[in-house]
Amino acid sequence: MQTLREDQSTASWLVQHPLSAEDEAAMTAMRAIVEPNKGKLRGVAARVPFNAIMERVSAPAGVVYEADSVGGVSGWWCRPEGARPGEAVMHLHGGWFNWGSAQAFRHLAGHIALSVGVAAFVPDYRLAPEHPFPAAAEDVRACYLGLIERGFTKIAVTGDSAGGNLALGLLVFAATSNEPGRRALVGGVALSPVTDLTLSGGSWSTRAVADPYFIQSQADELVRSYLEGNRPDDPLASPLYADLKGLPPLRVHVGNDEVLLDDSISLVERAAAAGVDVRLDVWQGMVHGYLGGLGRLAASTATLQLIGNFLMERFANAANEE
Question: What parts of the sequence cross the membrane (predicted)?
């Protein structure tokens, strides 16, 4: 099941990962559990069950958590033992801009922090519908500048789903901003990012059956709640329509069985055309949020290793460029 055009499938920016027999069996078992609830998480009532799902991510060993406020935005620090000073990851959680919390995503962010060897901060950016666009993006920028004020000179941003959207928005902001410290942003990783709020990607059709979580009418409601009348193709809301020139190095990971697959493909293709150091890893048989399967899925472990290696390299290169 491919949505990649022939020229895309052989592009230098694409790496496709096969599905192992062990992961295939694990995914079959998972699908049997989650598919009966496909498309049923809607509105603010979904916050409690959504957060409960994320709380099931295994806790990484040797990571200490601490509540804090950075740049006026509350959140959680995830600090691995021996974290390098002056460097940090900011992880932006998913939840379609309406759900999710820093506390619920702390273990996922803790794994990323541990893989890189630096502390990670997860901000509790404001959620829709109480705080529609652009409140979340404003909080992300405030938190980033707050990290700089704290003395962090090298920062990487990671984000999953809606958080991937916000991470990409921060990369665009840093590339075009005259704010002091904007060069602190050394790179980014987006996990199954929502890049196109017009929901026009072909995978909304081609992956409608394969995706066990989302349906388009559900996403329509969540996006309307977030945008509150703003245009879905506003570059500030949909990174796919932004000017991507000058972005720092970027890596994107996505499952092949996601309705959001084309959001990643289109974004990476545009970034590559703009001259960005970018790569897309497509994981066969994987679904949205598969990184949360750490300890159960080989694809999750391999993805985390790639994220860690990439960001460690980015931090090292930034130090050499000083």
Answer: none
Q: Per 3-state DSSP, what percentage of the chain is helix, strand, and coil (rounded to 5)? A: 45, 20, 40
- Catalytic residue positions? 161, 258, 288
Residue 58 has φ and ψ, to the nearest 5°, of -60, 140
Q: Output the pLDDT for position 292.
A: 96
Fold assignment, 6-321: Rossmann fold (3.40.50)
Q: First vs last Cα of the chain: how many Å apart?
A: 45
Which pairing describes strands 154-160 and 119-123: parallel, antiparallel, or unpaired? unpaired
Question: The pTM is what?
Answer: 0.96
Query: 237 with 223: CB under 8 angstroms?
Result: no
Q: How far is CA 275 from the centre of its chain?
A: 21
Q: pLDDT tens digits, residue range 239-296? A: 999 999 999 999 999 999 999 999 999 999 999 999 999 999 999 999 999 999 999 9
Write the pLDDT tens digit of every residue in 3-28: 777 778 788 999 999 999 999 999 99
For 242, the token pair is 């932004």
How many Å is the maximal CA-CA distance in the chain?
53
C-alpha–C-alpha distance, residues 220 and 284, integer Å: 26
Is the pLDDT at 198 greater than 80? The verdict is yes
Query: In the 3-class helix/strand/coil scheme, how is 100-156 assigned residue by residue?
Result: CCCCCCHHHHHHHHHHHCCEEEEECCCCCCCCCCCHHHHHHHHHHHHHHHCCCCEEE
Task: Say which residues have a Cβ less than 8 Å from residue 315's Cβ, sequence separation at least 6.
Answer: 84, 87, 116, 118, 154, 156, 186
